[in-house]
Write a structure and sequence with these properties.
Distance between the termini: 29 Å
Largest sheet: 8 strands, antiparallel
Number of strands: 8
Helix content: 25-40%
Oligomer: single chain
């Protein structure tokens, strides 16, 4: 993903820590005026950055209310909208996003059904480069697999990422959401 063999890995949360942080954030969504925050899982960075940027790939998660996906408005030549095994996603040269229904047991059931788990990968290694479709596809596949780790840690009862990813790109968010 960083186009190098030499990188540093930084683990932000253990599986249990990730699950606890995401459950805490989901509970907090009931509080009036509560702002959204992200729970980081891990990041990878080049041992020697190529330029002035950090050349980092980071993975994080947050919750959002269940509503129709709204695209970023970027043109399809720089941005792809995805349906990955029925899940909505987007990817460009620096950011990939995947939205997942995660049904949780017990007291979190109602809140989980009102929200979607959102997974993001930010990849600054490609800033300012012409990114090809296969790079966007690779980033969304990577994100799917990292999100599987999160849904397993959370214990999503519907097992939303049980299957291997089947990726299909579209030019508009409406096509991908069908």
């Amino acid at each position: 993903m960083l186009d190098t063999d030499s990188y540093r890995t930084r683990v932000e949360k253990s599986s249990a820590g990730l699950a606890e942080g995401l459950k805490e954030e989901l509970r907090a969504r009931e509080e009036p005026g509560r702002t959204e925050y992200r729970t980081s899982l891990c990041s990878f960075s080049l041992e020697r950055p190529r330029g002035t940027g950090s050349d980092t790939l980071s993975v994080d998660f947050h919750w959002t209310s269940r509503e129709s996906p709204k695209g970023s408005g970027r043109p399809a030549d720089t941005h792809t909208y995805y349906n990955v095994n029925g899940l909505y996603g987007e990817s460009d040269e620096t950011l990939s996003t995947l939205r997942v229904r995660c049904e949780l047991p017990g007291d979190l059931d109602k809140l989980a059904r009102q929200n979607l788990l959102v997974a993001d990968v930010a990849n600054t290694a490609y800033v300012g480069t012409a990114v090809k479709q296969d790079v966007r596809d690779r980033q969304i596949r990577f994100l799917y697999l990292m999100t599987r780790h999160a849904t397993d840690a959370l214990g999503c009862e519907n097992e939303p990422l049980e299957k291997n990813p089947v990726i299909k790109g579209y030019e508009t968010p409406e096509e991908a959401a069908r």
